[in-house]
Amino acid sequence: MNNKMKILLLEDDTILAQTMVQILEQENYDVTLVCDGEEVLEMTYENKFDLYLFDINVPLLNGIDTLKLLREAKDDTPTFFITAFIDIKSILKGFNSGCDDYIKKPFDLDELLVRIKATLKRKNPVIQYADITFDLLDNRVLKDNKEVALGNVERDIFALLIRNIAITVNKSTFFDCMNRPSETGLRVLISKLKKVLDLDITNIKGIGYKLEKL
């Protein structure tokens, strides 16, 4: 299972889309690219995203009408419109359809990244569990307000547990995070997390592990 923030990018300009995907992935976002509004509706039917980046002038179903349909379906995922339209009518139309921000083409990628991070920080701040804080955006784990040094795999295992408190996470899901998946390796990782973070983790025999509710 992937614990990165997930972004759905609607952009039919191939060169711009590839550039944006590359930059966003370098910033550790998980990016799904689609080229028309109907693809957006298909993707959002079965998948949950943390942010939408929508061009307006795209085939089949434009970005504004796509967002209207999502909002009518009670989808409140933060949404940026990225478009060459600059007249006030288009901007107002975009905000009236439910967007959270508006980026005019051509745009500065650093500015876009700053805005994305600020928006995600507001929407997905932290998970608190006893004296442990998990910063979802920066992927940092703190205990008593002091950062805990965890390896990437250890942090991914911890993220699965804390995002699913009181729910048993299947071993195969943990294995997806591991470079060399094995039951022994998973036991070692779970034991380290229990020791370092003082976690109450239960082994559900033959199935997986569960972080107990406080």
Write a structural description.
The chain has 214 residues and is an alpha/beta fold. The protein folds into 2 domains: 6-123, Response regulator (Rossmann fold, 3-Layer(aba) Sandwich), CATH 3.40.50.2300; 126-211, Winged helix-like DNA-binding domain superfamily/Winged helix DNA-binding domain (Arc Repressor Mutant, subunit A), CATH 1.10.10. It is 41% helix and 22% strand. The chain has 8 helices and 12 strands. The strands form 3 sheets. Strands 2-1-3-4-5 form a 5-stranded parallel β-sheet, with helices on both faces. A 4-stranded antiparallel β-sheet has the order 6-7-8-9, covered by helices on one side. The chain has a 3-stranded antiparallel β-sheet with strand order 10-12-11. Helix 1 (14-26) links the parallel strand 1 and strand 2 (30-34). Helix 2 runs parallel beside helix 3 and helix 6 (152-162) packs across helix 8. The protein is elongated, with a radius of gyration of 20 Å.
Secondary-structure map:
Blueprint: E1 6-10, H1 14-26, E2 30-34, H2 37-46, E3 51-55, H3 63-72, E4 79-83, H4 88-96, E5 101-104, H5 109-123, E6 126-129, E7 132-135, E8 140-143, E9 146-147, H6 152-162, E10 169-170, H7 171-175, H8 183-197, E11 201-204, E12 208-211
Parallel strand pairs: 1-2, 1-3, 3-4, 4-5
Antiparallel strand pairs: 6-7, 7-8, 8-9, 10-12, 11-12
- Quaternary structure state of the chains depicted: single chain
**Chain-averaged pLDDT:** 87
Shape: elongated
Number of strands: 12
Task: Note the run of SSEs as H and E.
Answer: EHEHEHEHEHEEEEHEHHEE
User: Radius of gyration, Cα only, in angstroms?
Assistant: 20 Å
Q: Work out the helix count.
A: 8
Q: Characterize the biggest β-sheet.
A: 5 strands, parallel
CATH architecture of the largest domain: 3-Layer(aba) Sandwich
Strand content: 15-25%
Strand order of the largest sheet: 2-1-3-4-5
- The level 1 CATH classification of the largest domain is Alpha Beta
CATH level 3 topology of the largest domain:
Rossmann fold
How far the N terminus sits from the C terminus, by CA atoms, comes to 24 Å
The CATH homologous superfamily name of the largest domain equals Response regulator
Helicity range? 40-55%
Structural class: alpha/beta
Q: Quickly count the domains.
A: 2
> Which regions have little confidence, pLDDT < 50, spanning 5+ residues?
none
